[in-house]
Amino acid sequence: MSSFADLWDYRSRVGDLYRRVRQGHESGAAAAELCRQFRDGRDALFRTHAQSALDEAQRRAIRGLAYFGYDPALRFLVPIETDVEPEVLEFQLSADGIVRAQRFGRVRFTTDGHACALSLFWLLGYGGGVFLPFQDATGGRETYGGGRYLLDTIKHADLGRVGDQVVIDFNYAYNPSCAYNPRWVCPPSPQENRLTIPIRAGELAFHG
């Protein structure tokens, strides 16, 4: 199988994982069990697939990625505020050149008494897609220092919407590929999406 066909297969499998989560929530399935199944599926892809972010030695050694326990309080269904400045951010990604992302919305939520906001970005270029990176106070200690991602719909990381509201579930926060080894270069979390509080949900730092 060619590398492009491998990548197609990998993204299809990732899309299936997220689709099952969206459909499970719609049907009222137990949220913690859905998350466990998602993590098991993601771990299997990381261990076995040619397009895993891990290199061959890492794939042979890893038993599974590390996560915080599931926390239902860190799943939110929130409206998208669209009255934002449509600024375009640029990320230099070495061989991929400059990636441009335009702010198109903002989501707000409250956790442990702290009011928080995160900007939503649209990746510019053919097709485009929603991109939601963030960093929190666990970064550099419990989680990857460069931040984590919640949504990246170009790569099928999409937790869904209910009417005019979007699902923000930190239990599905995941590391960018550059968290696993230096052969990857990824867009960092912009300053405006750096939370001053800890978000202890989702994927932990990788120590493979």
Lay out the secondary structure.
Layout: H1 3-27, H2 31-48, H3 56-61, E1 75-79, E2 88-92, E3 98-111, E4 114-123, E5 129-134, E6 148-152, E7 161-162, E8 165-169
Antiparallel strand pairs: 1-8, 2-3, 3-4, 4-5, 5-6, 7-8
Helix pairs in contact: 1-2
Keywords:
three-stranded antiparallel beta sheet; 3 helices; alpha+beta; five-stranded antiparallel beta sheet; 208 residues
Largest sheet: 5 strands, antiparallel
Number of domains: 1
Tell me the Rg in angstroms.
17 Å
Structural class: alpha+beta
Shape: globular
Instruction: Tell me the fraction of residues in β-strands, as a range.
Output: 25-35%
Task: Report the span from N to C terminus.
Answer: 27 Å
Helix content: 10-25%
In summary, what is this structure?
This protein is an alpha+beta fold and 208 residues long. Helix content is 24%, strand content 25%. The protein is built from three helices and eight strands.
Task: Describe this structure as you would to a colleague.
Helix 1 (3-27) runs antiparallel to helix 2. The mean pLDDT is 95. A hairpin with a 2-residue loop joins strand 7 and strand 8. This protein is 24% helix and 25% strand. It has one domain. It has 3 helices and 8 strands; from the N terminus they run H-H-H-E-E-E-E-E-E-E-E. Strands 2-3-4-5-6 form a 5-stranded antiparallel beta sheet, with no helix packed on it. Strands 1-8-7 form a 3-stranded antiparallel beta sheet, with no helix packed on it. It has 208 residues and is of the alpha+beta class.
